[in-house]
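Course assignment 3, question 2. Fill in each field.
Student: A.L.
Task: Predict the tertiary structure for the chain below.
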Amino acid sequence: YALASGAFMLASGMQQAAGSFGKRGLGEIAFSAALAALFFAGLGVFGRSYEAMAWAYILSFGGAGLVLLLNSGAARPGPLPARETLAALVQYSAYSFGAGVGSFLVLNVQGLLLNAYLPPEAVGKYAAYYAATIGIAAYLSYAVGTVLFPKAAASANRRRLWELSAAGWARIAPAAALLLVGAEFAILTLMGRHQYGMEPRLMLLFAAGGAAMMVYSSLAQIIFSEGVKAARLSLAMALGGGAVNVAACLLLIPVLKVAGAALALLLTYLCLLVWLFRIKEDYL
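Answer field:
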């Protein structure tokens, strides 16, 4: 799954960078259609198990990624970049990799800590609420970022882009949180209300965390598009956010259980937003 999804993300990013937005969009549609078809076909082979979903993801990610890579010309070998260009690419890639580690500490480490502190039923409840809010928010943030980042990088007036985005989010963030609450209601109903429940406090905390994630992700794209200097900032903020999240989880999960994990995520993104607003003048 990691190899297949990595190939798809790499190919999708190459299409985005090349300005092939139509091909990239068709790749996303093809992946989604293949995923649905393969999942339902897999139910007949594996039954109602995670294996059916796993193979559906592997084959749909891998197939769409391979087609996009072949279409992008990546399969044809070309000359290596000049030493100076390669050094800049390696430096930027190292910052991006470190930022990815920080993102893991924010988005993925909670499940590991919950497994250490809580019984399986509570971990399952967390996974259900997470999928209904943070999973959706993460995908929407990724979709916005693929459009906003290149626009910000090419813009001669990032300050104006920041002001418009910040003013827009000030108006629509509450609506985004309500939309995520609605998604929770629909998804938890389908998954089984008797099994996962619908706790108002949990629903609001997860929805608020998802909304804060979307606000931060979109505004951060404008700041991080500045270049290598901003890539260093991206690394620092990702690792800083990861440290805040881990510390908050260790403090809150033993006391508040699943709500502690949701609150830790919300506090992490609020801290990152405050940090972003405090340093924005140096990057606009």
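Instructor remarks: The CA atoms of residues 153 and 226 lie 6 Å apart. Residues 158-196 form the longest helix (39 residues).
Grade: pending
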